[in-house]
User: Which sequence fits this backbone?
């Protein structure tokens, strides 16, 4: 520690708490109090909080991203095939300039690819929710069902999603439903499990209330079980969407058709590496947005 | 005295991994209609277990239990419970929590405006007319317990069961709510059974105090008649020698006869 630092650490005469003795004696309120009297303190304080946020959260995040891009640029510099950030950015600008063009089945805009992938995820996930959530409620409420399904669930849950694809192709004889089937089967487990856990964790106190009031099974479900389980259910849904979005790219690589996964494979065949990198970013950003959206929805159900 | 709630030779045995655990044995108690009976004892003496038996939340292993001449077979709205930790449903407002009970008990015969009126009246009775649409997390612990009391009373139960209703509250709020309960129960004339570990609370509110011996195999160690005139007032009672004597009796039972080896 050098001298100047020590000096800085010493309390300065002006900044001693309770200083400004002249103002105090004259009965003038200190600056902060004066500000709050005309509602000026609030923006001041929130500006301070914004500053905190900026320094502690936003700055490191930006620094991390910058470092990442720098590393990427350095790597690209050394490599013959890997395009750098600048080149990829240029390509992305062109790509997103006209996202919805349509030149036949193998040449569609990025927008179409995104829409089709989201559609498959939506369908597969939606059906999984329709089956998984009620199943989760039943598994959680009736221990017989729980013991009955436990071995099946623990056996099938760890199976890699793409292992289900051949079964889907075999049954549906078509690529599109097979891809949706893969989404369905891989995203159903978190919803069943989380819903069931939620049901089994409904506080005994609430169930005692139900018993004292002698509520009907339907009322117990709508007034106690469902609201109590909702936060767990939302966690299940969030995990499921995450899995579904992870799986879609791989599934589409194998099944073809329009979609981000197939697009990645197609651009690999064209050796258009910029587009592959852009696809990775697009998949990441959409996954992030889905996650944030569901977190936002889940927040509404916290009591 | 009529026997509105009657317990005869009631016992409760829990099966545990180490074998049978006798929680209660040989409980004989008769509570008259409109009577206020407290059950007092050290923690772990099975007083809440006894209340749960009367509520029908647990089933007694032996003995006979009757309420208004009918056997207690399970929980029901005729024996409303005010739970220790209020047990309000956090996703329903104060109004919603009480309405759920009102709707269950009176929904078959009354229309919605009447049900709403009952709900509002119950909440107004406990002094929460201004907080009808507040959510449970927005109100204080004392207010939550008031909602719990309003919910129980709104059902017009035959018997009101209170499980250490003020245990989790600070002393001032507790005193305030005790006074309120005194007033409300007197006005409604409800038969009330309350579990407590607070000697002053027991003497102030009760007609009789049931003193439980320590568990395991706890039973009724004695019953204290509280023959103080009603309406009772906390401040005048403090100077009443009879009050001091009754309080002393209870303390003597709890700390001399049932002194715990491990404090």
Assistant:
């Amino acid at each position: 520690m050098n001298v100047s630092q020590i000096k800085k650490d010493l309390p300065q005469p002006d900044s001693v708490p309770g200083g400004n003795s002249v103002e105090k004696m004259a009965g003038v309120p200190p600056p902060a109090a004066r500000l709050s009297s005309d509602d000026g303190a609030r923006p001041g304080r929130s500006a301070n909080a914004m500053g905190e946020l900026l320094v502690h959260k936003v700055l490191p995040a930006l620094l991390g991203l910058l470092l990442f891009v720098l590393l990427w640029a350095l790597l690209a510099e050394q490599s013959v095939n890997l395009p750098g950030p600048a080149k990829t950015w240029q390509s992305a600008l062109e790509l997103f300039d006209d996202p919805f063009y349509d030149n036949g089945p193998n040449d569609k805009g990025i927008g179409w690819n995104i829409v089709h992938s989201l559609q498959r995820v939506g369908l597969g996930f939606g059906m999984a929710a329709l089956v998984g959530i009620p199943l989760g409620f039943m598994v959680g409420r009736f221990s017989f069902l729980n013991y009955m399904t436990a071995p099946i669930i623990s056996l099938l849950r760890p199976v890699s999603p793409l292992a289900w694809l051949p079964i889907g192709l075999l049954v549906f004889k078509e690529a599109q439903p097979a891809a949706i089937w893969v989404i369905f089967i891989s995203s159903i487990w978190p919803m069943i499990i989380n819903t069931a856990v939620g049901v089994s964790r409904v506080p005994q106190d609430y169930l005692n209330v139900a018993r004292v009031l002698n509520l009907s099974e339907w009322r117990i479900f709508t007034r106690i079980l469902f609201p109590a389980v909702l936060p767990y259910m939302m966690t299940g849904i969030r995990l499921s969407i995450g899995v579904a979005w992870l799986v879609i790219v791989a599934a589409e690589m194998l099944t073809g058709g329009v979609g981000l996964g197939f697009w990645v494979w197609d651009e690999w065949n064209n050796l258009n590496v910029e587009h592959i990198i852009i696809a990775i970013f697009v998949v990441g950003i959409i996954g992030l947005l889905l996650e944030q959206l569901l977190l936002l929805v889940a927040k509404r159900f916290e009591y | 005295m009529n026997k509105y709630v009657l317990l005869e030779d009631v016992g409760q045995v829990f099966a545990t991994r180490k074998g049978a655990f006798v929680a209660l044995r040989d409980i004989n108690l008769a509570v008259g209609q409109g009577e206020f009976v407290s059950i007092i004892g050290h923690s772990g003496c099975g007083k809440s277990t006894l209340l749960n038996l009367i509520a029908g939340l647990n089933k007694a292993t032996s003995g006979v239990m009757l309420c208004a001449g009918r056997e207690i077979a399970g929980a029901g709205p005729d024996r409303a419970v005010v739970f220790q930790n209020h047990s309000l449903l956090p996703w329903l407002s104060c109004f919603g929590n009480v309405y759920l009970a009102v709707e269950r008990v009176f929904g078959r015969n009354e229309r919605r405006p009447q049900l709403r009126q009952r709900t509002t009246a119950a909440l107004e009775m406990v002094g929460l007319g201004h907080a009808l649409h507040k959510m449970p997390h927005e109100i204080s612990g004392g207010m939550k317990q008031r909602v719990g009391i309003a919910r129980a009373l709104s059902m017009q139960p035959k018997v009101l069961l209170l499980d250490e209703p003020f245990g989790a509250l600070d002393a001032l709020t507790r005193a305030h709510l005790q006074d309120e309960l005194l007033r409300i129960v007197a006005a409604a004339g409800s038969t009330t059974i309350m579990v407590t570990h607070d000697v002053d609370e027991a003497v102030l509110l009760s007609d009789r105090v049931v003193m439980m011996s320590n568990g395991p195999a706890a039973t009724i160690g004695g019953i204290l008649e509280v023959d103080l005139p009603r309406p009772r007032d906390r401040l005048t009672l403090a100077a009443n020698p009879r009050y001091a004597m009754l309080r002393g009796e209870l303390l003597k039972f709890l700390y001399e006869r049932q002194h715990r080896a491990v404090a």
The mean pLDDT of chain B is 90.
